Amino acid sequence: MPDAELVAEQAHLEESRRQLARMRERTASMDSSAAGDWVSREYLESTFSLRMKQLADDPTIPLFFGRLDYADEEFHIGRRHISDPAGEPMVIDWRAPVSLPFYRATRAEPMGVALRRRYGFQAGRLTAFEDEDLAAGGAVTPDDEYSAILEAEIERPRVGPMRDIVATIPPEQDVIVRSDLSRSVCVQGAPGTGKTAVGLHRAAYLLYAHREQLTRQGVLVVGPNASFLRYIRDVLPALGEIDATQSTIEELVSAGSVTGRAWEVRGSDDAAVATLKGDARLAEVLRRALWSHLRAPTEGLVVPRGSRRWRVATYEVDELVEALRSRGVRYGAARAMVPQSLAHRILVAMELAGESPDDRVQDAVARSRQVKDYANTLWPAVLPGRLVWRLLSDAEFLAGAADGILDGAEQAQLQWERAPRSPGTARWSLADTVLLDEAADLVERTPSVAHIVADEAQDLSPMMLRALARRSSTGSLTVLGDLAQATTPWATRSWAEALGHLGKPDAHIEQLTRGFRVPGEVIEYAARLLPHVAPTLEPPTSVRRARGELLVLATDASDEPVVEAVRSAIVREGSIGLICPDARLDGVGRALAAAGIGFAVLGADPASEGDSEFLAHLDLVPATLAKGLEFDHVLLVDPAGIVAAEPDRVTGLRRLYVCLTRAVTSLVVLHDGPLPPELGPPA
Fold first, then answer.
1. Is the predicted pLDDT of residue 237 greater than 50, yes or no?
2. Residue 610 confidence (pLDDT)
3. 33-42, 64-73, 124-133, 492-501: which has the minimum mean pLDDT?
4. I need a labelling partner for 514 at 20 to 30 A (CA). Which of 21, 344, 363, 505 fits?
5. What is the H or E stretch that residue 131 is in?
């Protein structure tokens, strides 16, 4: 006989879905034609459209996942607020203050809660629940904290992009998620600790708690590559939030700024040059180079007006220039002030001569050919592209700007071997576009957003961090990363240093070491590399009871063992990631195709691949794109090759550490030669 309580909860879920549909229908019926003007009508239509998207229902996703029982009332906690026709809540948004005890209450500190209930679901259907009596008090044991439903949710097989963890956020992460908007937070998170999810859920929380401000000023999520962004794309929409913009650092700096020019990345630098271009000292070189364009006046300004000629002496022009520079405004903004400043000097001279000019006279003088030509000579226009192009192609110009900052060898290293004829023909590298972005900000201020979530931030150069800093100059940041997974030659050495470049030296640093995703067998094997790649970090631990599966197999050098391992894996439920060195990607792909095994290639052009990335049962993953991703089962090919492909051994070992920690259930390591000795004996 069905459990009466379970049947009642299932009925509440069905009724909640009906009420959500009613709310959506009501929104769809709203008419914008009553607006007073077309601007108001456009605004209303945009608001209604946004609300419709927020109220979209996916029947495979539970509307609520928990319940709080107090002495005289109860609340179902879910992904969004749902109410009945009378306005009574059917489901409370997880971000609302009343939902806080669901994540924080304990027996020792029940926060007024008598009972906490969690629900188990299958394909959106409520199938089970478990209760936790918080009113009982007493000491808390590990068994008391264990939840079979939570464990099942974490281990539930996955196919497709990343999903939200709103039902499984632990207390220490909830504290980060609900941090105030004004507070910048840095999360040093070991693999499997959920740092990416924490950052995304903080964005969702802030959009809920400060909706008007964040909708107006913007929320930006920055990830390491386009594949990663596609992997996390569904998390915020599943929580009812669609206002955040997602971007890679490359898209951010090459998209153009207030100067209006976009720059395409068509070239590349070797590791040493890219590291030098990413050095924070280049910011001062650029600043000097820009302001070196100012020209000292060789003669005063003369403006004929009527029968008289009005003059501004050279010493007055020098004073004017110095006054503008001392204001600390951008080069372009100060340049725009020069004509009016010169005209004001002439206006004062007119008044001293007994005339009575007004503001119209000053404007006319500022627009005169004599003043405009004089101002352009004194304070010439500078385009960011031409500034950077000249620095990288003109050794004498670079030497003047870099004197005392870069030595001769560094200056020579920055110079192009064959300088392009113009900025438009240059094959800009990613590091170049970051310099262009810095130069553009020196000319005209880059707009700031309210909040930025920067994931895998340990891989950003100081100049890249500065690019984020200027976009959060009036806002805050959530910085996510793991120093042990730093895989760029210019990677962050410490979070204190990175936060300095971000302009948030006082940001709170939180370290997450309790792994909820990577099983114990896998994380302990990967952690053998930590003494060699990040000796100061605390080793991660897995809190899951299931130890997972780890198998290390010696094979021959052909692709046949890889194909056989894939055949064994694809019969299992859940997502499969086949990770291999980038150089072996094509060969392994051909072997899989010849064997008739379907797969998607991570990072391939979505148009050519039918956008099957993360939707196929099997993803073929180049080692350089594995960071931040998770798969139920991982097959790792040629670990020594992954290490050898990087510019230095430490970076290679960090890349291997990343690849070893992508598995949620099982990891199979296939090696046709000696394993990296840092891994120790086979597991």
1. yes
2. 40
3. 33-42
4. 505
5. strand 125-133
Measured CA to CA, the distance from residue 590 to residue 630 in angstroms comes to 24
Q: Euclidean distance between the first and final Cα of the chain, in Å?
A: 48
Q: Are 231 and 615 in contact (CB under 8 A)?
A: no
The total of other beta-carbon atoms located within 10 Å of residue 307's CB is 5
Token representation of residue 5: 């309580």
Q: Which helix (H) or strand (E) holds 567?
A: helix 560-569
Three-state DSSP state, 104? helix
DSSP class per residue in 201-226: HHHHHHHHHTHHHHHHH-EEEEESSH
Residue owning tokens 């030669």: 673
What is the reported pTM?
A: 0.90
Distance (Å, whole) CA 435 – CA 253: 9
Query: Residue 522 and residue 500: Cα distance in Å, rounded?
Result: 34
Q: Are strands 89-93 and 82-83 parallel, antiparallel or unpaired?
A: antiparallel
508-511, Cβ contacts within 8 angstroms, sequence gap of 24 or more:
508/179, 508/183, 508/184, 508/185, 508/186, 509/186, 509/188, 510/172, 510/176, 510/185, 510/186, 510/187, 510/188, 511/187, 511/188, 511/189, 511/538
What is the C-alpha separation between 446 and 440, in angstroms, rounded? 8
Helix (H, G, I), strand (E, B) or coil at 149: helix
Which residue's entry shows tokens 């196929």?
Answer: 616
What sign for the dihedral angle of Cα 155, 521, 198, 620?
Answer: negative
CA distance 137 to 118: 19
Write out the two tokens for 539: 């080793």
Amino acid at 482: D
Contact predicate 627/487, CB 8 Å: yes
Provide the total of helices (H) and of strands (E) in the chain, helices listed first: 30, 22
Task: Tell which residue, 681, 640, 678, 672, has the closest CA to residue 659.
Answer: 640
Q: 676: which residues sit within 8 A by CB, 6+ positions away? A: 639, 640, 643, 653, 656
**φ/ψ of residue 234, rounded to 5:** -90, -5
488-to-229, 279, 413, 647, 649 alpha-carbon distances in Å: 19, 13, 19, 9, 12
Q: What is the overall mean pLDDT for the chain?
A: 90
pLDDT exceeds 50 at position 1: no
Segment 335-355 shows an average pLDDT of 92
Residue at token pair 């004004």: 182
CB atoms within 10 A of CB 128: 15
Structure confidence at residue 608 as a pLDDT band (50, 70, 90): very low
Tell me the pLDDT tens digit for each residue of 185-198.
999 999 989 899 99
Q: Do residues 511 and 218 lie in contact, with contact meaning Cβ atoms separated by under 8 Å?
A: no
Q: String of b and e for 505-540 (b: at least 16 CB within 10 Å)?
A: eebeebebebbbbbbbbbbbbbbbbbebbbeebeeb
pLDDT, mean of residues 386-415: 97
Sorted by sequence, the CB contacts under 8 Å of residue 120 that are 6+ apart come out as 126, 127, 128, 129, 130, 149, 152, 153
Give backbone dihedrals phi and psi of 554, rounded to 5 degrees, phi first.
-85, 130
Q: 468-495, pLDDT tens digit by residue?
A: 999 999 999 999 999 999 999 999 889 9
